[in-house]
Design brief:
The chain is α/β, with parallel strands linked by helices. Helix content is about 35%, strand content about 15%. The chain has helices at about 25-35, 60-70, 80-85, 90-100, 115-120, 125-130, 145-150, 175-180, 190-200; strands spanning about 10-15, 40-45, 75-80, 105-115, 135-140, 160-165.
């Protein structure tokens, strides 16, 4: 298990399958780091994601290695294997509870997309999450968030939800897998180290 510092005020957990991690993920993390004066962003590759089909998901050790390769030159980024090692599905509530128990920061933010905010009340223990975490929501085209946040069920937690405007890049893990399957280049869509790892391990050839 990774060791964490204990002198930080603000950290963020950035969860996802990262299959594979791409430059859009890194841009979101860097913007969050800067805009919200975070001390660290912890990338959290999902073990068994409850909202996605595990079939076809790249093995956890390979996804973790790709994340490590992508972030290794940024001292403000780290990654955790917590969700790989815990039993059962990767529920964000469990992850938040675990990091709160470590007492490694005054505030723990969760970086999510606009689509996830719209679905959050279908997550495990949504009110625990909204009462105990702070949310950085990356705005996405086609998702109108002001009207959503005005709804009664969101209003008690509005001070814990922050909308982050994003540079729209169009990067997509799904598209990267498709391009690899078709034998096309993915250069400049993810880090070169990740491209090399995908090629050496023949990932996504049979998606």
């Amino acid at each position: 298990m990774a060791k964490y510092k204990t002198d930080r005020r603000n950290i963020a957990i950035f969860g996802g399958t990262f299959d594979p991690i791409h430059l859009g993920h890194l841009l979101i993390a860097q913007q969050a780091l800067s805009f919200f004066s975070l001390d660290e962003v912890i990338f959290m590759p999902a073990g068994i994601p409850p909202h996605k089909n595990k079939k076809g998901l790249t093995p956890s050790d390979k996804r973790l290695k790709m994340v490590k390769k992508a972030i290794r030159d940024n001292p403000s980024f780290s990654c955790s294997d917590y969700e790989f090692k815990k039993e059962g599905c990767s529920y964000t509530a469990d992850t938040l509870r675990y990091f709160k128990q470590l007492q490694i920061a005054d505030k723990i933010y969760l970086i999510i997309g606009a689509d996830s905010l719209l679905q959050i009340f279908s997550w495990q223990e949504p009110r625990y999450l909204l009462k105990n975490g702070y949310f950085i929501v990356a705005r996405r085209p086609g998702f109108e968030l002001n009207g959503v946040l005005a709804k009664d069920k969101y209003s008690p937690y509005r001070k814990r939800i922050f909308i982050m405007d994003m540079i729209e890049t169009g990067f997509s893990s799904t598209l990267i897998r498709k391009l690899v399957r078709e034998g096309r280049s993915i250069k400049y869509q993810t880090r070169d180290e990740v491209v090399d790892y995908i090629n050496r391990h023949a990932l996504y050839r049979g998606d």
